[in-house]
Amino acid sequence: MALYTGQAGDLRDAPALAAAAEEAGFDSFWVSEHHGIPDGCLPAPLVLLAALAGATSRIRLGTGLLLAPLHHPLRIAEDAAVVDRLSGGRLVLGLGLGYAEHEYRAFGVPAAGRGDRLESLLGMLRQAWTGEPFSAPGLGLHDVRVTPTPAGRIPVWLGGYAPRAVDRAGRLADGHLVGRGEPGVIDDATTHLGAVRDPADPGFTRAVIVTVVLDEPGGGAASARSAFAAQQRMYESIQDGRNVYSGLTGTGTGGGGEDGDGAGGGLLLGSVDEYVQVAGSADEVVRGIDAVFERLSGWARVHVILRVLFPEPDPAVQLARIRTLGRDVLPRLAHRRAPVTPR
């Protein structure tokens, strides 16, 4: 079981949140990447994970997702290796394409062909992390070397919703991460992944981010809903004119990459509760998360990531929520948690 934060807030609070997640019993802590968005989203996930490595000792640290085409491929390889070293082999590198055109313009990176560049990057990373000289002409790299090497084998997961993106993850990556854990989205990914990847393969992870609002003392439900609604309105405003869920939810909202098309905009579903996959008391949250695991029960390795931290002003509310989940929810889902594979 994992914990996800999609915003930066006061970065000085992040080590305490990650340490609290570790103490509460979460298996991993995830951060995402966005640029130039007025909700405090994090622009440098690997930099923050390097800091969190020193504040934690057990919990895995993940990028969900790093917007790979915006970065030089050698920089990704080197920074990931350093974070993996600092954390003692705890990094999970999630990569994606993103959907915000303004981010590509800001970095002066062409959006066309970014899916192909991501595919080339995956092979290059494995070469780079051997520590031996290598070349990747398609990425403009010739006789280069990455040192130091990672502490272990860094799992690389890919995100995305559209068939091409899901197929890419199934063929080339160690896992697929879907950012909205609704039944239709999960089932559609299952269909596409099952065509290219054996569900019994223990080397492949099905990962799903599930938005959770806990209506319990210490859960800060009103604060969570208000902050999530503001964030969702902002996301939909920059996604206007695109259906980045490829029509799966019928809303035109979310984030899935270059392979989708269509239209979107506004808070299309009205109430923010329509965007929350699991909500209610601790009992209801346990049942809701357990249903997600059950939906993925045909896969050998499943990782459910709880999105419970939103851009709220009071870190004490977030800390209390993490502790409540650790006390009242996680122990009741222990039978669903996959063992951590030593690296």
From TrEMBL:
Q: Which InterPro entries match?
A: Bact_Lucif_Oxidored, Luciferase-like_dom, Luciferase-like_sf
Can you tell which superkingdom this protein's organism belongs to?
Bacteria
Question: Which keywords accompany this UniProt record?
Answer: Flavoprotein, Monooxygenase, Oxidoreductase
Molecular function GO labels:
monooxygenase activity; oxidoreductase activity, acting on paired donors, with incorporation or reduction of molecular oxygen
Q: Which Gene3D superfamilies match?
A: Luciferase-like domain
**All residue ranges annotated as the Luciferase-like domain in the record:** 6-294
Record has NAD as a keyword? no
Entry's Gene Ontology cellular component terms = cytosol
Task: Respond yes or no to whether keyword Flavoprotein is given for this record.
Answer: yes
Pfam families with a match to the protein in the record: Bac_luciferase
Q: Which family does it belong to?
A: Belongs to the bacterial luciferase oxidoreductase family.
Q: What is this protein called?
A: Flavin-dependent oxidoreductase, luciferase family (Includes alkanesulfonate monooxygenase SsuD and methylene tetrahydromethanopterin reductase)
